Amino acid sequence: MSFSELGLVPELLRALEAEGYTQPTPIQGKSIPLVLAGHDLLAAAQTGTGKTAAFTLPILQKLAGTAPRPLPRVLVLVPTRELAAQVCESIRTYGRHLPGFKTAVIFGGVGMNPQIDQFRRGLDIVVATPGRLLDLMNQRVANLSGIETLVLDEADRMLDMGFIHDIRRVVAALPKKRQNLMFSATFNPEIRGLAQTFLKDPVSVDVAPRNTPTELVAQRVHPVDKARKTALIAHLVKEGDWKQVLVFTRTKHGANRLSDQLAREGITTAAIHGNKSQNARTKALAEFKAGDIRVLVATDIAARGIDIDQLPHVINHELPNVPEDYVHRIGRTGRAGCEGEAVSLVSGDEREYLRDIQKLLKREIPSSVVPGFEPGSQPSAAEMAARASQPADRPPPQRQHQGRRPGGNSAGNGGGRNHSAPRGAKPGGGGGGQRHAQGARKPQNRNPQQGASNRPR
C-alpha cells in the first residue's frame, strides 16, 4: 500500500516524498481513512509506529478543504512539552505545501505574552499541554468554541500523570459536535473508561499486542552489583564503540549523578529531566541527535517525546517501578522499521521488578553476566581509582511542590503549568544540557544514530 492509495492530496504526498517516506505504517494505513471519513477513533499503537502522522496527515487534509475561520479548529492535547514540540514539528513538516495554517505549541515554563499574542492573531491548530492551556482559558484568551477535532495523544500517560481533571475541564469548553481521536499505547480499563466519556461510537484500531514491545528490539539483562552499574555502562559503551545511547534512571538526582560519573570516564554525556530548563533540554537533545553527545541520561517523563528514527541502544540503569514503563522505555529504540537493542542492568534488589516485567511480556528476557562484572566480584583497580577521584555524592534536594496540581513543573513532567519554552520545527539553541566532554539508589515502593527512515512518525 502507498500513501496515494489512502486518498491523501498531492501536497501531502509531496511533503512525505521529500522526507523519504514511501509506505504507511500499519497504524497509519488503518487510521488515516477512518479519520478522513469523520469517525471518532480509539487507537492503540506502540511507540515508534508512526501514530503522530496517523492523525496529523488526515487533519491537515481536512483543513485544506475548508475556508479560513477566526477561531482554532483543531486541538491536540499531549502530556509533555517534548511531545508537544514533536507534534507541532510534524504538522509544519507535512503541511508545508498546503495553505498557510497557523499552528501554535502551548506549554508552560515561559511567559504567557507570546502565546497570548498567537491566540489574538488567530490560530488553526493548537498543540498544548493541559495546565498552560487552562491558564489561558481562565484568562479568556484561549477561545476553543470553534474546535472541530480533538486529539488526545498518549492518553495513557496523561492519566498516569494525573491530568484527568484538567482534561475534563478543557473538554467541557469544546463544542459538543466534534471529531475525537484518542491514541494510547494500551487499551487498559482506564483508557476504555475515558473513551466512553469523550468518544462517540468510536472505531477501535489496535495494531500491536497489548503491552508488548516491538519485535525489532533485542532485549537482554546483565546481572551486576548496584555499585558497579556505572562502570559497566562505561565498559559497554567503550568496548562496543556505541555512538548513541539513551540511558534511563529512576530519579532526576540519579540522572545528574550518572551523567557526571560517565563524563569522568571520558564519555560525552548530558542529562535531561524535569528540573532542566526547556532550552537546556532542547539543546541536549539536538546535540544527541547530531552525534555530538554519545550518552543521553533521562528520566521517564523527560524521555517522552524523544523521537529518533535509528536510535540503536537503550540502557536501563535501574529497572522502572512499573512494568509498563519498561515497554515505553525500550520503545525509544527499534522504531520505524530499524533494529535496536535494550540492555537492563539488574542488581539483586531488583529481581522482583524483573519478574513483574517478564510476567507482563509473557516471556523471559535473556540474561548473561559480563566477564569482570560478576555479582560479588571485586572492582578493578581502574574502577577503584575512579571512585577515589570522585567527590562525595550530594543528597537529592528536598521536593517543594506540595499543594500543586498533579503533573506540575516541580514533579518533572512537561504537562503541568509553568513549563517550557515553545520551539519551532527543529530542536536547538539556548541553554546548556549539562553536557560533559571530559576524559543508585534503592528501588522505591512499587507503583505503577540519527538517519533517514522510509516511514513517517
Automatic annotation (TrEMBL):
GO terms for cellular component: cytosol. It comes from the Bacteria. Residues 445-457 have a biased composition (Polar residues). SMART domains: DEXDc (SM00487), HELICc (SM00490). Residues 405-417 have a biased composition (Gly residues). Its EC number is 3.6.4.13. InterPro entries: DEAD/DEAH_box_helicase_dom, DEAD/DEAH_RhlB, DEAD_box_RNA_helicase, Helicase_ATP-bd, Helicase_C-like, P-loop_NTPase, RNA-helicase_DEAD-box_CS, RNA_helicase_DEAD_Q_motif. Pfam families: DEAD, Helicase_C. This is DEAD-box ATP-dependent RNA helicase RhpA. The lineage of its organism: Bacteria, Pseudomonadati, Pseudomonadota, Gammaproteobacteria, Nevskiales.
